[in-house]
């Protein structure tokens, strides 16, 4: 992604930490949480890889189409999974956004903007609106869980993979990172 290197490294750290926690969530005893955590880990690590500052590392020309293919496949998987659970629609939008950003970067890897004209392209604007709304809604959903968390005894008996407030915090941080990446596009 284009933009200041310090912002890029902060995004890399945030997304990599989120991806690592999602890997821990894959050890959950609840099957649906394991499946969702796998897709979220892919998103976290993919976002971390794409957020590495261009001034530090310029990916080879085949990397962006490769990212687009991986996230396109993830979007198809999310579309297939959405038949059983509507939460996968968010995964579909996220994976599609990643594929879109990778395709945009493949089309113009050396420019500060992923488009030729002035202003924000329509797809980027729609994705920014979606993820901004998602971040705001996720933040609101996180507050009641933190306020009524159930005390210290209740938290200690739940494994790391089964803590809903941490899963929501990870989704919130990935949403924030997605907004930042779309703005840098």
Structure description:
Helix 1 (about 5-25) packs antiparallel against helix 2 (about 30-50), helix 2 runs parallel beside helix 4 and helix 3 runs antiparallel to helix 4 (about 90-105). The model is unreliable at about 110-115 and about 145-155 (pLDDT under 50). The protein starts with a helix and ends with a helix. About 70% of the residues lie in helices and about 0% in strands. It has one domain (about 5-185). It is globular. By secondary structure, the protein is mainly α.
Characterize the overall form: globular
Enumerate the spans where pLDDT stays under 50 for 5 or more consecutive residues: 111-116, 146-154
- Number of separate strands: 0
Strand proportion = under 5%
Q: What's the domain count?
A: 1
Q: Helicity level, as a percent range? A: over 70%
Radius of gyration: 17 Å
Q: Major beta sheet, specifics?
A: none
Q: What's the SSE pattern?
A: HHHHHHH
């Amino acid at each position: 992604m284009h933009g200041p290197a310090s912002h890029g490294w902060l995004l890399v750290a945030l997304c990599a930490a989120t991806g690592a926690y999602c890997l821990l969530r894959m050890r959950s005893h609840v099957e649906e949480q394991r499946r969702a955590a796998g897709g979220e880990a892919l998103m976290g690590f993919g976002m971390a890889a794409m957020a590495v500052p261009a001034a530090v590392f310029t990916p080879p020309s085949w990397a962006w189409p490769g990212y687009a293919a991986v996230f396109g496949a993830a979007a198809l998987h999310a579309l297939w999974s959405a038949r059983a659970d509507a939460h996968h629609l968010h995964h579909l939008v996220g994976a599609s956004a990643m594929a879109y950003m990778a395709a945009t970067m493949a089309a113009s890897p050396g420019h500060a903007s992923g488009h030729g004209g002035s202003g924000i392209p329509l797809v980027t604007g729609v994705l920014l609106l979606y993820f901004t709304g998602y971040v705001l809604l996720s933040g609101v959903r996180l507050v009641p869980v933190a306020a009524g968390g159930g005390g210290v005894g209740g938290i200690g008996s739940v494994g790391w993979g089964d803590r809903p407030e941490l899963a929501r915090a990870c989704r919130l941080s990935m949403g924030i990172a997605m907004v930042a990446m779309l703005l840098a596009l």
